[in-house]
Write a structure and sequence with these properties.
Elements lengths: L6 E4 L8 E2 L2 H4 L27 E3 L9 E3 H10 L2 E7 L5 H14 L3 E8 L5 H12 L6 E7 L4 H15 L6 E6 L4 H12 L2 H13 L5 E2 L22
Parallel strand pairs: 2-9, 5-6, 5-8, 6-7
Antiparallel strand pairs: 1-8, 1-9, 3-4
Helix pairs in contact: 2-7, 3-6, 3-7
């Protein structure tokens, strides 16, 4: 099974993960996650525009998603979000920073964990990255970590989780993002998970509305050996 490099998941240390697939949307069910269908055949972000009482996604085929601003506001006030970024290619940092900016706009209470590979990024570049994060908001809690090049982004992510647990960090939800070199994977993943602050809030709202959902990934980037090609983002086809 292939899993997108950008995912939202419920809680640190969740023992069981239930993937929220696109099946419900393909079957015509409404809900915030269905907005990701707009990315199935397009690299454009799905923008949620704020309305007077509710927020509406753009239309894609017959899917229209409505999210109540009042309900979202309640969750934003209390949730603590952890963002875990794995930096293997520092030249792609501007894309990561754009994602982080959306998260910072959506949530005031966030912890940011950034990992670097040993020997791959100069200290001056690491400092520039850290300063760009702090410039977004003084309320961001930033932790950096330099790790050996083992296990690619997953190895970095596990090291970050171990560090966070050791320091007693507690999060209701976490977002994992890494510097995926392939532009299609990277663009689709970032746009669908954190293209705007409304997408970030919409994803978190799914966790509140569906207690059995523990993980959300971008449509078209999560697949296995038997997944129909129609459910995989076209540029990823063999």
């Amino acid at each position: 099974t292939a899993l997108a490099p950008e995912i939202f998941t419920r809680k640190l240390g969740a023992e069981e993960l239930h993937l929220m697939s696109d099946d419900a949307c393909l079957n015509g069910e409404s809900g915030s996650a269905c907005a990701l269908h707009a990315l199935q055949h397009s690299k454009m972000p799905v923008a949620l525009q704020k309305g007077s009482r509710s927020t509406r996604h753009r239309r894609h085929n017959d899917d229209v998603v409505v999210v109540d601003d009042v309900v979202i506001a309640k969750s934003v006030a209390s949730d603590r979000l952890g963002m875990f970024l794995q930096i293997g290619n520092a030249t792609l940092w501007p894309d990561m920073l754009g994602c982080l900016s959306s998260v910072a706009d959506a949530y005031a209470n966030i912890g940011v964990h950034i990992s670097f590979l040993e020997g791959s990024i100069p200290n001056a570049t690491k400092l520039e990255i850290a300063n760009s994060v702090r410039a977004l908001s003084m309320r961001i809690s930033l932790v950096t970590l330099t790790v050996p090049n083992l296990g690619e982004d997953i190895g970095q992510f596990l090291a970050q989780l171990e560090q966070a647990e050791g320091e007693g960090q507690q999060y209701d939800f976490i977002l994992k993002v890494h510097t995926k070199t392939d532009i299609n994977w990277r663009s689709l993943g970032l746009q669908s998970m954190c293209g705007t602050k409304w997408q970030v809030r919409s994803a978190i709202q799914q966790f509140h509305e569906k207690p059995d959902v523990d993980l959300i990934g971008p449509v078209g980037l999560v697949y296995g050996a038997t997944t129909p090609l129609s459910d995989i983002y076209p540029s990823l086809w063999p």
